[in-house]
């Protein structure tokens, strides 16, 4: 049979139970504070700044997508690493008959899939008829490549693709 705890010099008192209870909750609160701080300091932002307005714009975007499909443009994009962290983007636009598309402004963005603070806009300049090129300093990894082409303020083409930059 085991001897009572009092015989071994240990006595469990109400103060000791209270101290253990306070210490337990202090540790839980401290861990929660650390985790909340880590989560809020690493959060890169929302995908959509104003979801309500984005929802209202859905029909306009749907109509623009239908018009884009009707134009049947062929757009090719090549993203290649030139040296170090520098990558070159080449975008070529052709109509349904294979003729280069001119008179458009083309913009591109490399968006990080998890951290909006790492997004990179790429300034594209026209190299030739229907061909636009630009460079950006981006590290290796997965990126969302967004390409927009507009003519006289009207969106003509929009694309979003996941790319791996090696």
Structural overview:
The protein is an alpha+beta fold and 166 residues long. It folds into 2 domains: 30 residues; 93 residues, Sandwich (Immunoglobulin-like), CATH 2.60.40. It has 3 helices and 8 strands; from the N terminus they run αααββββββββ. The protein has a 4-stranded antiparallel β-sheet, with no helix packed on it. A 4-stranded antiparallel β-sheet has the order 4-3-7-8. The longest helix has 29 residues. The mean pLDDT is 88.
Attribute tags:
single chain, 166 residues, alpha+beta, 4-stranded antiparallel β-sheet, 38% strand
Briefly say what this structure is:
This protein is α+β, with helices and mostly antiparallel strands and 166 residues long. The protein has helices spanning 14-42, 51-56, 58-71; strands spanning 74-83, 86-94, 105-111, 120-122, 125-128, 131-137, 141-151, 154-165. The longest helix has 29 residues, at 14-42.
SSE diagram, text form:
Elements: H1 14-42, H2 51-56, H3 58-71, E1 74-83, E2 86-94, E3 105-111, E4 120-122, E5 125-128, E6 131-137, E7 141-151, E8 154-165
């Amino acid at each position: 049979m085991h001897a009572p705890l009092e015989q071994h010099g240990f006595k469990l008192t109400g103060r000791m139970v209270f101290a253990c209870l306070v210490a337990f909750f202090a540790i839980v609160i401290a861990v929660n504070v650390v985790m909340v701080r880590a989560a809020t300091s690493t959060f890169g932002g929302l995908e959509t700044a104003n979801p309500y307005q984005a929802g209202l714009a859905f029909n306009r975007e749907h109509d623009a997508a239908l018009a884009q499909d009707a134009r049947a443009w062929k757009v090719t994009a090549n993203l290649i690493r030139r040296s170090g962290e520098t990558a070159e983007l080449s975008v070529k636009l052709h109509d349904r008959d294979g003729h280069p598309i001119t008179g458009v402004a083309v913009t591109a963005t490399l968006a990080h899939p998890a951290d909006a603070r790492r997004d990179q806009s790429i300034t594209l300049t026209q190299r030739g008829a229907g061909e636009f090129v630009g460079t950006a300093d981006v590290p290796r990894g997965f990126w969302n490549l967004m390409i927009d082409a507009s003519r006289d303020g009207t969106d003509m083409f929009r694309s979003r693709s996941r790319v791996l930059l090696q």
